[in-house]
Amino acid sequence: MQISFEKVNFSYNPKTLYERQALSNINLDIPRGKFTTIIGKTGSGKSTLIEHINGLLIADSGSVKLGNLKVEKKSSRRERGKMDQDLFNVREKIAVLFQFSEQQLFETNVLKDIIFAPINYGIDHDLAVKRAKELINLVGLDESYLERSPFELSGGEMRKVALCGILALKPKILVLDEPTIGLDFKSKQEFMTIIDRIHKEEKITIVFVTHNMDYVLEYADNIVIMKNGKVAFNSSDKGDFLEIISREDYNLKKPDFIIFQELLKKRGINLSRTHYSYKSLTSELVSLVGASHE
Ligand SMILES: Nc1ncnc2c1ncn2[C@@H]1O[C@H](COP(=O)(O)OP(=O)(O)OP(=O)(O)O)[C@@H](O)[C@H]1O
Ligand SMILES: [Mg+2]
User: Which residue has the higher pLDDT, 182 or 37?
Assistant: First the structure.
C-alpha cells in the first residue's frame, strides 16, 4: 500500500489563542516495502505526521492517500461517516505503535490484549489465539506470558506485548514512534532485531520515528528530516544525510563509527566504502588486518 501526503497542513487548536501549526505543506511519498526513518528535533512534527498515516488526525487542507483511499476533511456528516468506515477497513492494514506504547495495553491478561484487534475485525477466536502464540514467541517471550497481566511486566516486555497486539492483524505497514526510548541497551537491540526481521521476512513497509542516528544509518532505506513542521530532507542517500546534519543545526551528532572512519581516511587508510553499521565496518577491518598478516 502506497502512502502519499499531498500539500498537507495541520494545526492543533485551530482558530483559538492556542493555535499551533504543526505541519505545513507536506508533500511526501512513503515507498512501499521500504524502511523509512523520520528524524528531527523535538517538536518538529514527527508524531503529528505519522498520526495522519492511519487517519487518527485528518489534514486541515491537503490529503493523505492510503492505497486507494484518499483521506481528507469532509464537510457533510454523510461523507464523514463513509470516511470513518473506510478508515476502519484501511486500519486493518496499518499498525501504529505510539510513543510509550505500553500505555496502549488495557486488557486483564496479555492474550486478551493481543487478540483484541483480530476479534474486533471478525477473525475466528481459535485462529487469533494461534497467532498470539506465534507472536509471543516471535518477540522472544514464552507462552506463559499470555496468562499474565500486562501491568505486571517490565517496560521492555510491555513494549513487546504492545508490538504483538498491533502485529496480530498482519499489517502491511508498521508505523513506530520512538519504540525503543527508555529501554535498556539489550532490550533496545532485541527490539530492533525483531523489527528488522519482520521488515525483511514479511516485506512490511516500516515508518520509524527516532532520534537515534545509529538506527537511521543502519536500517533506513529512506531518510526524512522534519524541521518546523516541514520536510527538510527526503532521500535514500546516507552520504547526503551526513553532510546536511554536519552543515545544519538538527541537534544530531554523527555516530562514533562514522567519525572513526573519517579519522582513518585522514590517516590515509581508504576503506572500500563508508560503512553504516559497526558490524559492516568491523568485517572490513578484520579482512584488512587479516590481509596485512599474510
Ligand atoms: N495535542 C497537542 N496540542 C497542541 N499542540 C500540540 C499537540 N501535540 C503536539 N503539539 C505541538 O505540535 C508541534 C509538533 O509536535 P509533535 O508531537 O508532532 O513533535 P515531535 O517531532 O513528535 O516531537 P518529539 O520528538 O518531542 O516527540 C509541537 O510544536 C507541539 O508543541
Ligand atoms: Mg513525537
Answer: 37
Q: Is 22 in the pocket of ligand 1 (CB under 6 A)?
A: yes
Categorize the per-residue pLDDT at 90 as very low, low, confident or very high, splitting at 50, 70 and 90: very high
d(CA 24, CA 40): 15
20 in contact with ligand 1, CB cutoff 6 A = yes
Nearest to 182 by CA among 141, 148, 212, 140: 212
Cα of 53 to ligand 2 centre, how many Å? 14
Residue closest to 284 by CA, chosen among 137, 273, 218:
273
Which of 152, 218, 148 has its CA nearest to residue 188?
A: 218
Query: Is residue 222 lining ligand 1, measured as CB closer than 6 Å?
Result: no
- Measured by CA distance, the residue closest to atom 27 of ligand 1 is 42
Counting ligands in written order, the one closest to the CA of 250 is 1
* Pairing of β 173-177 and β 205-209: parallel
- Cα(211) to ligand 1 centroid in Å equals 15
- How far is the C-alpha of 99 from the C-alpha of 263, rounded, in Å? 36
Q: Residue 294 pLDDT > 90, yes or no?
A: no
Q: Which residues pair with 37 in a beta bridge?
A: 208, 223
Mean pLDDT value across residues 252-270: 93
- Write phi, then psi, for 279 (nearest 5 degrees): -60, -50
* DSSP, res 173: E
3-state secondary structure of 7: strand
DSSP conformational letter for 153: S
Q: In this model, does residue 99 exceed pLDDT 90? A: no
Whole-prediction pTM: 0.93
Pocket test for ligand 1, best of 5, 8, 9, 12 (most atoms within 8 A of CB): 12
The model's pLDDT over 164-186, given as tens digits with 9 standing for 90+, comes to: 999 999 999 999 999 998 888 88
